[in-house]
Amino acid sequence: MKHxxxxxxxxxxxxLFLSAQRCDDKDFCDKDLYGEYDYRSQSxxxxxxxxxxxxxxxxxxxxxxxRIFTCAERKLKDVYFRIIYPEKxxxxxxxxxxxxxxxxxxxxxxxxxxxxxxxxxxKTGSIFANDTIWGRDLVTSESVVYDSREADVAYWEASxxxxxxxxxxxxxxxxxxxxxxxxxxMVGRRYKxxxxxxx
Length: 199
Known about the structure:
The protein has one helix at residues 2-19; strands at 44-49, 53-60, 64-72, 80-105, 123-147, 156-160, 164-171, 180-191. The chain is mainly beta and 199 residues long.
């Protein structure tokens, strides 16, 4: 009986393994896109479906030039990508308002406090005042610095002067029939004034 169960599992799961595809051993990109950059360390590959959006966070380092682009299997149609700078900043925010009792002291005509024989200010009454406590809230936002649909070239290229995090957002448009396929998110870098490169 055990042999039949194992055979049944192999028959059921077999087609799934056969239909799965490896994306890291395929190349859909035009060779002219690569340039003199090294793509080995931060490039990504993914199997996606039409209608998906893939976001990859990458750190770009100061003192290096970068070239980034996305390629996809032809059947996925019109895949495009954006480069996004995430921004974080602190904003002053009201945390709490406390009511507290504040004493009122007697003053002379010039506005100076009047003291009793013990050297203490003379209290004439009290009022309630608001004590405002302020804090800081972290506000995050995103700014798009490159959109392949609006760009003159099919890649984002930049010289990085300050190490920072960027987001590469690849959008696979929906299609009337659901399709799946591979995309390549190519992150190429080179040291400034360096002629050595490898793909």
